[in-house]
From TrEMBL:
Essential cofactor(s): pyridoxal 5'-phosphate
CDD domains reported in the protein's UniProt record: AAT_like
Aminotransferase class I/classII large domain segment(s): 25-376
Entry-linked Gene3D superfamilies: Aspartate Aminotransferase, domain 1, Type I PLP-dependent aspartate aminotransferase-like (Major domain)
Record protein name field: 8-amino-7-oxononanoate synthase
NCBIfam families listed in its UniProt record: PRK08912.1 (NF006488), PRK09082.1 (NF006569)
MF (Gene Ontology): transaminase activity
Alphabetized UniProt keyword annotations: Aminotransferase, Pyridoxal phosphate, Transferase
Pfam families listed in its UniProt record: Aminotran_1_2
Organism: Microvirga arabica
Amino acid sequence: MNRLFANLPTTVFEVMSSLARETGAINLGQGFPDDPGPEDVRRAAADVVLNGYNQYPSMMGIPELRSAIATHYKHWQGVDLDANTEVMVTSGATEALAGAILGIVEPGDEVVLFEPMYDAYLPLVRLAGGVPKFVTLQPPHFRLTEEALAQAFSPKTKAVVFNNPLNPTATTFSDENLKLLADFCRRFDAIAISDEVWEHVVFDGRQHRPILALDGLRERSVKIGSAGKIFSLTGWKVGFVCAAPQIMKVLAKSHQFLTFTTAPNLQAAVAYGLAKDDAYFNDMRKNFARSRDRFTDGLRTLGFDVIPSQGTYFVNIDIAPLGETDDVAFCRRLVMEHGVAAIPVSAFYAEGAVKNVVRFCFAKKDSTLDAGLERLARAVRQTR
């Protein structure tokens, strides 16, 4: 068997979710909403299943969706894209990441990874034969520094895998940090693979700035988006890839031998959804922000040290003030003894792990969040 996959441990998400199922715990670990998603978008998908085309669609994505993606990003982010040569549809953002990494990285190439990171990045880099070079981000701000980038980049650097907004930290990168990253990519002739799936889930008046808009990166970057995150339909697995034509030509060949294409009814429904008026997207953010505030206020009332959530479905706490030094042990006790599943953020580090941060998902019904807070209150009383 391939040792890379054979030796991978069971993910912490599966471990905690399994414990939640076994114990009847409230699962605030896995990142998916309770809400079923917008009904009109779901009905559009159902209509195409019954009345539309259900055979192989174009490998690059149906024309309507590619055009809708280009129009959407022009409207929201000011990025000009040629729908025919710079946009591709994949079966989810993880497939887009796999295709980008396998299409760009060759054995021996160095790839800069920022930890904590989405758990697919490192196995995919190693599968491509890449050599990971880690930049370890520290709480509570998780910011880039010139010193850390200088240690990670070298003449062997081929690519950077970047996530903004950042899962699991729920932070966004400042313009200053983005400029610093762009400077290093230009200086070392590296391609930026930018995971921007949370681009619409940002709060407090923030505006997402795409990698393609940074000076000098338009021709050396790959932007990846997700319909699942935009429409709270995480099971649909419809991803977007945007890149300059010379990069896209290679990524298309990589995609061809992964999933090849994506369900046409879902593509048609996403094209419909991307054209919804601004009110949908603004209201979506407001609703998630309200849930964030409800849960965050509850955590602070209980005495938890909360790291502010700037985007994503998540909020983190620092458990060090509780005298806790092992986030994995803390989360295991939380689910087994108090009936709440959370995620230890150390699971998102490959080296230099931070052991004092725990992640919760707030994209849940008020009743679920309130019940979770009640159980966390018991946990706090026992800790003290």
